[in-house]
Structure formats: C-alpha cells, structure tokens
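ugh ok fine here u go
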Amino acid sequence: MNNAMIVKSAVLGISILVAAACSQAGEQAAQVAQAEQKNELGYKTGDPADWPAELDAVAAAPGNHKILLENESVRVLEVSMAPGETEPLHSHRWPSVLYIQQAGDFIDKDADGTTIFDTRELDTPLTFPLTMWKEPEAPHSVVNLSDDQWVRLIRVEIKD
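structure:
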C-alpha cells in the first residue's frame, strides 16, 4: 500500500469516527429536547412575567452567571459551577440556547426542592460538548454532584 492510499484510509477512518460521535451527541440532545417538549423532565412552566425579578439568574446567582454580552436582542451568559456546588434558586425568563462544554452528573431542583432532572437517570450518559434549546425556566437550582468536574456552559438567551 502506498502513502497516498494510507492517507486516504486514515482520513476515511477519522471521518467515520467523527460522524459517529456527532450522531451520538445529536441523538442525546434530541432525547433531552423531546423529553423537555413533552415536559417529561418535570420542569414547571408558567408566565415568566410572574417570576420575581430578584430570581433572575444574574441577580440571584451572580457567582455562577457572568454576562458576556447583553443588548435588546440577546443576553449571553457564561455559567460555571464548582464540583459539589449548589446554585442559588434562580430563573431564566427567556428561551435560550445552551452550549454545555463540560459537566459531570448533576441534578436540577424546582423551587420546592423537588428533583426535576437527574443526569444519572438518563438511558445514555450525556456526551460533551452538547448544544440544546431550552424554553424559559421557572425558579430552579442546579446541584453539581461531581467531586472533581466543573459544570461549564454558555447560555444565549433570546429576548422577546
């Protein structure tokens, strides 16, 4: 086998691996999105106008939500949580795109402390990075269950 054939074989192999990884990540994002659309994740909904302004993510959990850009159309947040950290109760009044860069296991609790999402209960573990759509989120609190993994993501909130 000559060098050109070896290179072509290597490129084909890498392409297949990348396609498989992208397909798996896409399937996981679709699984979470479908469950969210059916509200199977248990997220409480409601009118964001009814949620207290002091529970806005930036006001209620400033140690976890840093504004990277804000204008009349969008608010871009850098979100981070240390291993073992629990975020203060907060809300997100606009729909958003999440680009989750890394995370270990985590749970999300509603304002009453009821677990509404637990990564340990997924059929397939999440693979990162992961991009997903989120509708407005009523007051909730995320708990990073990992002893050594940070939760890091970018949230692009789409204002009305």
